Amino acid sequence: MRSCDVFGIQDLHVVEERLGKKLDREIAMGAQKWVDIYRHNDVSQCIATLRASGYQIIATTPHNDSQLLADFDVSRKTSFFFGTERDGISDTVKNAADGFLKIPMYGFTESLNISVSAAIILQDVVSKLRMSEVNWQLSEEEKQVIEMGWTTNTIKSAPEIIERYYADKND
């Protein structure tokens, strides 16, 4: 979540099916205020939702015929799937993926923890995207909606203040 915030990724989809573990606010360090989190009960439902929104599904794995990060094309709307450090990506993700992506590794260890993997991939992809001619910027209306969400996430009693504003306005 922090990596998404740091690199300007607004939407984070989380599948909590296997462990049922909730995101830890201490680890998130406040990033939950700035990133929109979409929770899914299972990975198939998450993939279906993302595909319906026009995303290609890219599974991250050091195995298979994975494409190297340096060669990744940033021109398509993409959702990256990360597996657990111990087990990697699930068979469901492997079977549904439009492609595979790997971070080059030169030592004997062939895995990184999810936060490190996400940070490396997001930093590379965002840097390429910002230097490309791809139209990735938000519209002014999209920015206003996000900024209003951020504002309500940071102001104590925001719903009550908004309710009072509209009540006073209608008087």
Taking all Cα atoms into account, the compactness measure Rg is 18 Å
Strand order of the largest sheet: 4-6-3-5
**Biggest sheet, in brief?**
4 strands, parallel
Secondary-structure content class: alpha/beta
Helix content: 40-55%
Query: For the record, what CATH class of the largest domain applies?
Result: Alpha Beta
Q: What is the percentage of strand-forming residues?
A: 5-15%
Instruction: Give the count of structural domains.
Output: 2
Helices and strands, in order, run as HEHEHEEEHEHHH
Provide the CATH topology of the largest domain.
Alpha/beta knot
Would you identify the CATH H-level superfamily of the largest domain?
Answer: SPOUT methyltransferase, trefoil knot domain
pLDDT averaged residue by residue: 86
- Secondary structure: number of strands: 6
Distance between the termini: 42 Å
Report on this structure:
It is a single chain. By secondary structure, the protein is α/β, with parallel strands linked by helices. The protein folds into two domains: 2-135, Alpha/beta knot; 138-171, no CATH class. It contains seven helices and six strands. The strands form two sheets. Strands 4-6-3-5 form a four-stranded parallel sheet. Strands 1-2 form a two-stranded parallel ribbon. The N and C termini lie far apart (42 Å). The model has no long low-confidence stretch (mean pLDDT 86).
